[in-house]
User: Fold this.
Amino acid sequence: MKRALLVLLVLISLGLCGICVVQWQREFRLRANIAALRDALVEENQKRVEAEAKVEQYGQEIERLTSIRKEIEARLLDLTEDVRNLTDDQSARGFSIAVLMNKAIRAENQLDAYKKLAGQGTDALKKHNDTVSAQNSAIEKANAQLRQLAGERDDAIEKLNALTREFNELVEKYNKLGRR
Assistant:
C-alpha cells in the first residue's frame, strides 16, 4: 500500500504541477490581455485628448470665422446702403439734369421768341409803355381823389361826433328837467 500511496502522491503532485502550469499560462494570457487593454486605453485617452484639442481649435476657428462673417455682413450692408444712396443720387441727378436741360431749352426758345418779337415789336413795346404810363397817371389821380375823399369823410365824422355830443347833452338836460 505504501507504493500505491506513493504513486498516488506522485500523480497528485504531477496533477498539481500541471494545474500550476495551466494557471500560469492562463495568468500569462490574462496579463497580456490586461496589458493590451491598458495600451488601448492609453491610446484611446491620447486620441480623446487630441480630439478635444482639435474641437477647441475648431471652436476658436468657428468663432473667428463667425466674427469675420459678421464684419463682412456689416460692411456689405454699409456698402449696399452706400450703393443705394449713390444710385438714388445718380437717378436724382439724371432727373435734375433732364429737368434743367428742359428748362434751358424752354428758356432758349423763349429768348428766340422774344428776339423775334423785339425785332417786330419795338413799336408795340413803345405803345405798351405809353399805355402803362397812362395807367400809372390815372392811378395817381385816383389816389389823390381817394385821399381827398378820405379827408372829407374824416371831417364829416368829426362834425357828426360833435352833433352827437350836443344831442346827448340836450338829452341829459331834458332828463334832469323831467325828473324834477
